[in-house]
Design goal:
By secondary structure, the chain is mainly α. It is 49% helix and 6% strand. The chain has 18 helices and ten strands. The strands form four sheets. The protein has a three-stranded antiparallel β-sheet with strand order 1-2-3, covered by helices on one side. A three-stranded mixed β-sheet has the order 6-5-8, with no helix packed on it. Helix 3 (92-126) packs antiparallel against helix 4 (137-223). The radius of gyration is 63 Å and the shape is elongated. The chain starts with a helix and ends in a 6-residue tail after the last helix.
């Protein structure tokens, strides 16, 4: 009897230990569940409620069974615990997979416990009549061990199922992630292939264009530019503009028919170092010639036409020197010479008479007279002299194939630009004169003074015009007397001095009605800004060009005596009065 109670206490202690340490058996599956022995039904322990226990602190990875979809237990949703490789921010499908694994484990536990209880009940009924005291200790121990192994086996099965579920979930999640990553990589590869195709097409197009250009250049070099080979054609005039380079000149040559192509001229030009000396202007060249011949013809001075150089102080019409009887060619004569083209019987020129007629009969506007001179020009009494001073001194270019009117208009327009570039339109601050009056005063300075004395002569003119003495308003310049004479001399006589003309400053006070010559830039500058001083009179006293200035008329007369004694008034540049 005592032994039986001892064995009962031992069994109770074992059950207590089993309940306390069931987690180890459950987790690691050391015990296998087996049906209880036949003799174990009579004293079978009550069904342990720990069989339904689910420890949520399991650290072993969980897997779900991939053979059967999980079912949610009646107790509601339980959050899955962390498994190996899972993050805290897993996507919703990962949570659902763990819930399904939990459902599968709970259902297996539920079914296993139910079957265990039913089996124990059946066995208890079969053995209900047997005597407990006849039990063998060894049978009892075997029963306990078998039941423990049975429960451990069930728990191991459930653990394996959960592990398989987790494994399936992990594999599904991995496959999902791998699928999305593969899709992104596939799209990236597709995009790269498309970009490579586009880039390849562009490169192929560039290669085709470059190849065509190189081929064109190669063929051109092999064949050379088109060039004339026949005899020269008629002469034409080519205009080389200021700033033109070889390419622009070549285009002009081709447009005029001188060469067959721009390349023919350009290739010859780059091989000829003399092209750097080509001046802007007009050139008479034969048409239908080779490029090399065109370059050579352009460099010949005789082929330049329409280039006229107007000396400083020159007037429109010719005159004769009384002492030497030399003919002084006027501006119209010089323009006529520069207009000639051809030689011998084929020579063509515009005459001075044609220019004179055009200048006298054409409206000043059509002749290019600038606005600042237009009104005064219209009031010049002698129309043949209305353009005096408007063709500036210096080198000018014109198209010799034009009409006389066109030639004059071209030269007057160029001259107006030259005058205006000196600041003529802003004159008047120092001399109180209009631009056209300044031009008239500059023409007087040009004819009366040497360059070094021009600022002082300009001051004499301004001082006399602004004097309160009316007699001072008569400038008494011999140059204004000579202007209308065919034969001129340094010292004018009394008959000429008192012959009334619109330009004679011995008779008329103030400035002449128009310029008496084409002034130089120095004369314009001097008249625009005269040198300060009180002078009213001047005279050149010797052949060395010494000129004396004074504000006293008596002193001026003494200076005139010195000039007469030196002979300067007989054979040199005229002295003033």
């Amino acid at each position: 009897m005592n032994d039986r109670w001892a064995r009962a206490e031992e069994r109770a202690r074992q059950r207590t230990e089993e309940r306390r340490y069931r987690r180890s058996d459950y987790d690691w599956g050391d015990a296998e569940r087996t049906p209880p022995s036949r003799g174990g039904a009579r004293h079978a322990a009550p069904t342990d409620d720990w069989d339904d226990y689910e420890d949520d602190t399991t650290v072993i990875p969980r897997y779900t069974d991939d053979q059967e979809p999980p079912a949610r237990p009646p107790g509601g949703r339980a959050a899955p615990r962390g498994s190996a490789g899972r993050t805290r921010h897993a996507k919703s499908e990962d949570w659902d997979t763990d819930e399904q694994a939990w459902d599968t484990d709970e259902r297996d536990d539920w079914d296993a416990d139910t079957r265990s209880r039913a089996w124990h009940d059946d066995r208890s009924e079969d053995w209900a009549g047997e005597d407990h005291e006849d039990w063998d200790d060894e049978d009892h121990v075997t029963e306990q061990t078998t039941r423990a192994r049975g429960r451990s086996g069930a728990r191991a099965g459930r653990a394996a199922a959960r592990a398989r579920g987790r494994g399936e979930s992990g594999r599904g999640q991995t496959r999902g992630r791998r699928s999305r990553s593969a899709s992104r990589k596939a799209a990236e590869r597709k995009r790269r292939r498309r970009n490579l195709l586009v880039l390849g097409g562009i490169l192929a197009l560039l290669l085709v264009v470059a190849g065509g250009y190189v081929g064109y250049k190669l063929i051109g070099k092999l064949g050379g530019p088109e060039d004339f080979a026949g005899p020269p054609g008629p002469v034409t005039v080519v205009h080389v503009r200021p700033g033109d380079i070889s390419e622009q000149i070549a285009k002009t040559m081709a447009d005029k028919g001188v060469v067959a192509s721009t390349g023919a001229f350009y290739e010859a030009a780059v091989r000829n170092s003399g092209m750097t000396a080509v001046q802007p202007g007009y050139y008479a060249l034969p048409t239908h010639i080779k490029g090399a011949d065109a370059v050579a013809a352009l460099l010949e001075r005789k082929n330049r036409v329409g280039n006229v150089v107007i000396p400083e102080g020159k007037r429109l019409h010719d005159s004769t020197d009384v002492t030497t009887h030399a003919r002084n060619q006027g501006i119209y004569g010089k323009i006529a010479e520069a207009s000639c083209m051809g030689t011998g019987a084929e020579k063509k020129c515009v005459t001075a008479e044609q220019l004179d007629e055009a200048g006298a009969s054409t409206d000043p506007t059509a002749l290019g007279v600038p606005a600042w001179a237009l009104d005064a020009v219209r009031h010049v009494p002698d129309r043949s002299r209305q353009l005096e001073g408007l063709i500036a001194a210096g080198a000018l270019d014109f198209d010799p194939t034009g009409s006389p009117t066109q030639i004059l208009a071209q030269l007057i327009s160029q001259s107006a630009q030259m005058y205006e570039s000196t600041g003529l339109l802003q004159s008047g601050a120092a001399n109180h004169l209009s631009p056209y009056q300044t031009l008239i005063g500059a023409s007087l300075v040009e004819r009366e003074a040497q360059p070094k004395d021009m600022p002082m002569v300009a001051r004499v003119i301004v001082n006399r015009l602004e004097s309160d003495d009316q007699d001072d308003h008569k400038l008494r310049f011999d140059s204004t007397v000579n202007y209308t004479l065919d034969s001129i001399e340094v010292q004018t006589d009394s008959n000429d001095r008192y012959r009334p003309t619109p330009w004679n400053t011995y008779v008329n006070p103030g400035l002449p009605v128009s310029p008496i010559a084409s002034p130089s830039l120095d004369a314009l500058k001097a008249m625009d800004n005269p040198k300060p001083g009180p002078w009213k009179y001047f005279v050149t006293i010797n052949k060395q060009g010494e000129t004396r200035f004074t504000a006293d008329y008596a002193e001026h007369l003494r200076n005139v005596k010195l000039a007469e004694q030196s002979g300067i008034l007989d054979s040199g540049k005229s002295g003033g009065r």
